[in-house]
Amino acid sequence: MPDGFSGGDTAFVLISAALVMLMTPGLAFFYGGMVRVKSTLNMLVMSFIALGIVTVLWVLYGYSLSFGTDAFHGLIGNLDHVGMRGIGMNDLNGTIPVTVFSAFQLMFAVITPALISGAIADRAKFSAWALFIAVWVTVVYFPVAHWVFFFDNGHGGWLGDRQGVIDFAGGTAVHINAGVAGLALCLVLGKRIGFKKDPMRPHSLPLVMLGSGLLWFGWFGFNAGSALAANGLAGMAFMNTQVATAAAMIGWLAYERIKHGAFTSLGAASGAVAGLVAITPACGSVSMLGALAIGLIAGAVCAAAISLKYKLGFDDSLDVVGVHAVGGAIGSVLIGLFATGHVGQTAKGLFYGGGFGQLGKQAMGVAVVATYSFVISWLLGKAIHKTIGFRVPEEVEVAGIDQAEHAETAYDFSAVGASLARALSSPAESHQSAAKSTAQDTAKTGVDAR
Amino acid sequence: MKLITAVVKPHQLEAVKAALQAFGVHGLTVTEASGYGRQRGHTEVYRGAEYTVDLVPKVRIEVVVEDADAEDVIEVLVKAARTGRIGDGKVWAVPVETLVRVRTGERGPDAL
């Protein structure tokens, strides 16, 4: 390997990339448990499909647009690495191979659109969603990743490298970006049938807890891995992640206990995720006490923010706005207060004698990414809605979209119904092979049961 | 003969079953049920959204016994199902006019 290569750093970032990959199925379960039984599978697949589509696009042109040499004023990368052209096994990015860096960043690109899906749970047409992911990462995520994550000695992305907006692991590029896109999409699609009238309770809180646990675990790769080296900064980011998450869980539960009289498991899981979101941009620039404060604030504020949808009347099904947009904004802006100047970055926040400079930059970063993401996501969503349609027909939504969109159901409740269906089936059907008729009965029961 | 129907808490089913078996009841039918009594259901909170859950899960146990045994069976059943907390359920009995064992065609108490 060439000079400067570090086996330790490379091993660490490879493992981190694998951890970040696990966040997407973790998210799938987190979201999947929160929807009703009839739409569980669709919720899971909406995340899984991101692994398919974004990976392919990343290799084709995503990496190049995000991390290729800047093509225009820090706004977008060039096309030199289309198809990963020109990237050899031994090319380095710092102390790790470019291939490893690319794998790590790919996982960020995968989970970001998956995060959006929670805002439009229960009602999006799967084909429209797949198309949305493909276009959205191309026109929103890849450029924004370039703005925030691409560093080239002052010739890199305009927000991070040129303006000095701090986003260690994706508070703006990932969470505000996805949260605001979620807001745009749920406005385009409209409310679920029965919103505010019918009970829409989570169908499986154990799944939610499992998903949030996987997210928490994977998030160490997300945040500590963003040091791109197995060093003290990675350790600091790791601890900050843990501290903020723990504090946010407590913050959310405290709010919930005061406001609603109970410590709920969904609150614990949601608080943890809110803390993970908020500390993401800040984990490389604040002290552990700063992380603790950010977590507590994020937990309580996000818990309050999720009621916005009832007050303002938009149906963000699984609170992507309240958790990711608000949590991401809290973490990004609080860097302007809590950055010590001694962790990863030299920029100091207001509380550490840095004045209002960094606070202003952080607020600007949040505003820019939120505005860009909202406008483009809304236009894209509207274009899809007007052409191929973004929403399933009413009868499909009422019945649950698993059967209609995926020809499957998440759970088999057909033990009683299947024998009834068998008893009622026509003689012609009863001559078919046992396996086939069993499958048919199950499918039929799925329909009948609704 | 009497049909005794009990709607009780699901987790009391095993205790009721064991008690009826010990008493000598030969068979019973169990179905899942949901409902509420005077106390209604309960409130659940999910991310701040409060849902009133009126219909709570119950099991419905049905046994047919001879008239002479009815009071004793009711007593056994009530004792086994009781937890002393709200929502323990109800037990009632109604007369049965006809009872047929499907396999043999026997009727009346012989079919029990």
UniProtKB/TrEMBL annotation, chain A:
Cellular-component GO terms for this entry: plasma membrane
Compositional bias per record (Polar residues), positions renumbered to this chain: 427-443
Annotated Pfam families: Ammonium_transp (PF00909)
Cellular localization per UniProt: Cell membrane
Family matches, as InterPro entries: Ammonium/urea_transptr (IPR029020), Ammonium_transpt (IPR001905), Ammonium_transpt_CS (IPR018047), NH4_transpt_AmtB-like_dom (IPR024041)
GO molecular function terms listed in the Swiss-Prot or TrEMBL record: ammonium channel activity
Domain Ammonium transporter AmtB-like: 11-411
Membrane topology: Multi-pass membrane protein
Segments for region (Disordered): 427-450
Entry annotated with the keyword DNA-binding: no
Membrane spanning residue stretches: 12-31, 43-63, 94-116, 128-149, 169-190, 202-222, 234-255, 262-282, 288-308, 320-343, 363-381
Keywords: Ammonia transport, Cell membrane, Membrane, Transmembrane, Transmembrane helix, Transport
Subunit structure, interactors included: Homotrimer.
Family classification: Belongs to the ammonia transporter channel (TC 1.A.11.2) family.
Function of the protein: Involved in the uptake of ammonium/ammonia (NH(4)(+)/NH(3)).
NCBIfam families for this protein: amt
Protein name listed in UniProt: Ammonium transporter
Organism: Kitasatospora viridis
Native organism taxonomy: Bacteria, Bacillati, Actinomycetota, Actinomycetes, Kitasatosporales
UniProtKB/TrEMBL annotation, chain B:
Keyword check for Secreted: no
Pfam families linked: P-II
Residues where O-UMP-tyrosine is found: Y51
One Gene Ontology molecular-function label: ATP binding
BP GO terms, sorted: regulation of nitrogen utilization
Entries under SMART domains matching the protein: P-II
Keywords: Nucleotide-binding, Phosphoprotein, Transcription, Transcription regulation
SUPFAM superfamilies: GlnB-like
Domain of life according to the entry: Bacteria
One of the record's GO cellular component terms: cytosol
The keyword Glycosyltransferase is assigned to this record: no
Alphabetized InterPro entries for the sequence: N-reg_PII, N-reg_PII-like_a/b, N-reg_PII/ATP_PRibTrfase_C, N-reg_PII_urydylation_site
PANTHER family for the chain: NITROGEN REGULATORY PROTEIN P-II, NITROGEN REGULATORY PROTEIN P-II HOMOLOG
Subunit structure of this chain's protein: Homotrimer.
Protein name: Nitrogen regulatory protein P-II
Organism: Kitasatospora viridis
